[in-house]
Amino acid sequence: MKILIKGAGDLATGIAARLHACGYKIVMTEIAVPLTVRRSVAFSRAVYEEEAQVEDAWAVLVQDMEGAGAVLEEGRIAVIVDETAGIRESYRPEVVIDAVMAKRNIGTCITDAPLVIGIGPGFTAGEDCHFVIETKRGHDLGRVIAKGCAIPDTGVPGEIGGYASERLIRAQADGIMEPCAMIGDVVEKGQKVAETGRAAVYAEMTGIVRGMLQPGVKVTKGLKIGDIDARQCREYCETISDKARSIGGGVLEAVTRYERQKYEWGSRYAIILLAAGSSVRYGANKLLEETGGMPMYQHMLKALSTFPALHRIVVSRYPEILEDAERLGMQAVVNRQPALGISHSLILGLQEAIAENTDLKGVLFAVCDQPGLKADTISRLLRKAQENPGKIVCAGRKGRPGNPVVWDQRYFKELLGLAGDTGGRQVMKNYPGDILVLETAEGELWDIDRKEDMTQ
């Protein structure tokens, strides 16, 4: 599998090293003058040294896709100066990881690749990427976030060896940076460790220099140019940090989740979201009503965004829903005859799914007015359907079937023959012995039909 990592700093390198060790092909992008402090354990060093080794992995600077291909064939990691990650167009990675660590999204979209992962604050899973990896030191470091954001940047560095902000070395003036201490040197508090714009920079604590920018870099006042570690272990200066390894582990988990979806379900199942109803009992378009801080329909789109390996189809007549679906990399299908009932939406979606994959084993149908439904429940439904071929698998409560429903391919012909506004329940009545109910929390099954339902 081909993976593109935006950024080649120490955290990005920790990610790359972990993925490379598992056999993935890695291309990394960097800026022309890297500002990696922990450069002894960063592949960004290859930009000005032409190659870089970090532990057992080697990275080589390349100029274009042809050079990258040759390096990948050698089993090494390719690094290219490419601030906008334009190589993505020719490399065509299956996974894009934004590890620039800009604390904000500076150009990554969820449609950049089948799987897009954002590292740290600045990204929202389900909006501009599929997963976010937590980077703040503490209990959640390395956690894979499938909905929402990482902890916001506090501006306060994580504590190492009992020190936090004191361990950072910052530029005291604008200008050229020249180090007076090298990575691996032990320095004392108050010792001069660098000059920036001819202004002296002093250590605020005693310890070993774990990171220092390369000489001759143009810096601005306040920029982080170095790092001191009170633990004074030289090995820590030359090996990937616990933080980078943890983040790399989170990325590896997200990638393998995607692979599992792809190989277990991707060629077998599709997901169809029905979102064309007229909301007659509600008295307005309920799908656009706000609940939980966002329009109702967006809850389901976010849930489906955690299944990038599956063909996801959204059938609607509402431009807002169709546009959002396309933005999130889903297929948008317009229902131009909503008066024909839910069966027409069902047929439109199923026809598209079958056209895309004639060997489809099953389809999960979901509705858009269940904002409490969790992505994990969708996973459980697909897994149960896979384990029980030929069955109709429904989410439900106390044996009573509800939505979503996974239909085996054996029922496709009858589903395509439906008419009116009763949907698949017409077919379910003919096969009561084939229905399997997956017990689901009541709050997930809550659907909104009337305005008073919004207050429950």
From TrEMBL:
Its EC number is 2.7.7.77. Pfam families: NTP_transf_3. This is Molybdenum cofactor guanylyltransferase. It comes from Clostridium scindens (strain ATCC 35704 / DSM 5676 / VPI 13733 / 19). Coiled coil: none annotated. CDD domains: GT_2_like_f. InterPro entries: MobA-like_NTP_Trfase (IPR025877), Nucleotide-diphossugar_trans (IPR029044), Se-dep_Mo_hydrolase_YqeB (IPR017695). It is an enzyme of class 2 (transferase). Keywords: Nucleotidyltransferase, Transferase. One of its GO terms (molecular function) is molybdenum cofactor guanylyltransferase activity.
